[in-house]
Amino acid sequence: MIEAVYISDTNASLVFEYQQRLSSPGYTSIKSMVLAHPESEPPIIAINHDYYVAFERFASITISVLCGSKSDPVNPMIPFVFIHRLFTAIKEYFGTPVSPTKIEANSDTLTSIMAEMIDQTGYPLTTDANQLRDLIPYESFLSKLLSTSSSIVAEHPAAKLAFNQSPPPPSQPNQVSAYPWRRSNVRYTHNEMYIDVIESIAAMYQVVPPLSSSSSSSSSMARLYPVSAHIDGSIAFVSHLTGEPRLEMSFNHVASRIQLPSFHPCIDIAKWDKQCVLNFVPPDGQSTLMEYQLEAPNHESGAIDINYQPSTATGEFELKLQIKPTPGLTKVDTITIDIICAEEMAIKPSRCTSGDFSYKGNGKGEWTLRDVKPTALPLLQAAVINTETDARGEPLYLRISYQHKGCVPSGLKIDSIRMVSHKGMPDSVKPYKGVKYITQTSDIVIRP
Asked: Which positions fall inside the MHD domain (predicted)?
């Protein structure tokens, strides 16, 4: 399947090349095609009837994977998953930011990594960064790092304390863990784990005009009708734990509403199906334990109540925001509202009680607010005016985004995380646990 892997810099100059067979096409045969390929199109190019190339552009390098077209039918996503696993391994071994210079200086180590990641038939073999660290020592990179650190300590005695407090060295090579996602013989002086529950909400609302013109009736107010609203979530985990402990993470009742979950290989899926708990031996370092989707409760827009009233006799629309009283939420860090109109229209605010409003031109305005507390009631009144005829109008749509910590839109909470097994860890060790809840909207759109 995989015939060759090429890594090039931003100028499309070859930095590293790994070929399964000498008969495979060289980098020069695909260079011009990759360089000329539009970014708007999928990053895959058919070279001829025998080969195609999948590639991904990163900040300072491009990784291209040459694949054989005549191999048995395979999942077309395999080359792209392989590229991201390779990029993760490069970051693990050579540090961030990734640069062509680091890759060239450590080409011998990278060649060994490639030999473990691809088997003799060209299929991905060992792609987990933690397992690779057991198989391939940090020869080129670590030797330079240690020699540099030693010289710094020799010249600056005050640096000895920081040097001695560095994490323990990685496990000995060729001692493979029973768990592919975890290094063997992991040891930490300070045992700790951190969990981030991260959710983003996307929603669309249509403004429904008032049913009555009577000012004394609640029906005289326009309301927002939810067209769609859903939540995407993930559980990020950072583990610095000695040995191979088994953990179990339980949640509140919201976990039973989770849809389309996808799991890290470490998760015991049978336990989740029966009890909605995450039972796992954690990967060493950073990982994403689970990603999921669910419907927004009552099709709401999360922590912010939005009230939009169309233009009245004054020719101005009105936008009110209110932070819902929510346990754990003390403030909303940022709120950004983009007001989009036809290009010939201008937005002229008459009242803005909080934050800053700026007109960007071409019918676009932006209202930004920071550190908004639940007691605040931000209000914006503005007119949409044709710059040529002075006629009044309405925005085409409003796009709202915000970020805050302390809770997530679904109401999901971690009830407990306990250690089921202490394998390799003394019973007296009590790891530190930290949990954060982070909300970030992808898009809330209001169409008047």
From this structure: 190-447
91's enclosing H/E stretch is helix 78-94
Tell me the whole-structure pTM to 2 decimals: 0.70
User: What letter does residue 11 receive in the DSSP assignment?
Assistant: T
In the beta sheet, which residues pair with residue 365? 339, 359
| Omega within 30 of 0 (cis) for the link into 97 | yes
Q: State how far the Cα of 149 lies from the Cα of 165, in Å rounded to an integer.
A: 13
Tokens 């930290």, located at residue: 434
**Token pair for residue 64?**
């291209």
Joined tokens for residue 350: 């008459």
Paired tokens of 227: 């067209």
Give 318's contacts (C-beta < 8 A, 6+ positions apart). Answer: 307, 308, 309, 312, 379, 380, 381
Nearest to 117 by CA among 82, 149, 142: 82
Task: Kindly report whether the peptide bond that precedes residue 245 is cis, defined as omega within 30 degrees of 0.
Answer: no
Say which DSSP state 425 is in.
S
**Residues contacting residue 190 through CB under 8 Å, at least 6 positions apart:** 240, 432
Outline where 257-333 has alpha helix (H).
269-275
Query: Which domains, ranges and CATH numbers included, belong to the chain?
Result: 2-135 (3.30.450.60), 192-208+222-299+408-446 (2.60.40.1170), 304-405 (2.60.40.1170)
Q: 282, 158, 310: which is closest to 223 by C-alpha? A: 310
Gap between the Cα atoms of 133 and 295, Å rounded = 40
3-state secondary structure of 218: helix
